[in-house]
Each structure stands twice: as structure tokens, then as C-alpha cells.
């Protein structure tokens, strides 16, 4: 399901530590490649700020057919091979994981990414009320954030990560200075 509102992005740069990224200029959209531990591009993530919250869009371009959990993680690092350096899911509201969990969700919990036989798939989602920069708990804090693709689908209820398995692709989001 696509839920994208018109959005503006002011001063957000997306870069990757060990991953290729692009910078976004004032008013533009930003994107970062999500790469495997071997450096292969598996997907591309875009984030923008809108009036209703932060929009995250992920387009697969190299994953095998299947369903994958995707999340925004707290730390802007993607150290291979396991990408554990990305930390936990972005969770400034200190809730539990999952939209089907009565005590959830984390703000970094996104819908699953479904990939077809051609290796392509797209998921887009607005994180209600989320701020990329500024405010009390921005996604793009001093150490940035990461978008991570997991090996398995998210079950949307099991804390802390929805039983979504190993981290198989990662890209770093960093606020411009």
C-alpha cells in the first residue's frame, strides 16, 4: 500500500559508511543504496519530510523473490558483514515492536517489502509525526540512522524485531552539516 503525501526535504544528506549514497539539496528528495555485506546494491531507500511525518520508500533491485522485513535503525553505521553497528530500531517513543503488538510500534517499524521473481518490489510508508531533523527525537540525530533489510518477513508483533532474521542489506542516512 502506498501512502505518500507531497513532501519537502530541507538540508538532508544521505550518505553511506561503506555504502554509496547521494546528497539531497534543499527542497529535493534524498536516496541511499542499501548494500549487502559484499557491497552489492540490493535496494534503494528514499526519505523525505512531509507535513504528516517522515516518508520512507524502498525499491528493491537485486533481492531474491520473497518477503523481507525493513526497518529504520538508530545508528548511522553499516559495518559488514552483519550490520549490527546500525543498532536497534529507531524507537524514540519507547514502545515495543510491531503494528500488531498492543504496546507497539517502534517508529522505525516499516511494512514488509515483497519482491517478485524479477527481483523488484517497492514499499512506501509515512511514519506519522516523525521528524527527520529538529524536534525532540529526530530520525537524523548526531549519528544519523540506517535503513536495514532483513532476511525474513516481519511478523509485526514480536519484540524487539518481529522475528525478521539476519540483516542482509544496509544504508546510512545522515543529516547534512
How would you characterize this protein structure?
The chain is mainly β. The protein has one domain: Superoxide dismutase, copper/zinc binding domain (Immunoglobulin-like), CATH 2.60.40.200. Strands 1, 3, 4, 5 and 9 form a five-stranded antiparallel beta sheet that branches. A four-stranded antiparallel beta sheet has the order 2-11-10-7, with no helix packed on it. It has a two-stranded antiparallel ribbon with strand order 6-8. It starts with 6 loop residues before the first strand and ends with a strand. The N terminus is likely disordered.
- In the CATH scheme, the class would be Mainly Beta
CATH fold topology: Immunoglobulin-like
Shape: globular
Outline the biggest β-sheet. 5 strands, antiparallel
Q: What oligomeric state best describes the polypeptide chains here? A: single chain
For the record, what is the CATH homologous superfamily label? Superoxide dismutase, copper/zinc binding domain
How confident is the prediction overall: mean pLDDT? 81
**How many E strands?**
11
Determine the N-to-C terminus distance.
34 Å
Radius of gyration: 14 Å
Q: Based on helices, strands and strand pairing, what is the structural class?
A: mainly beta
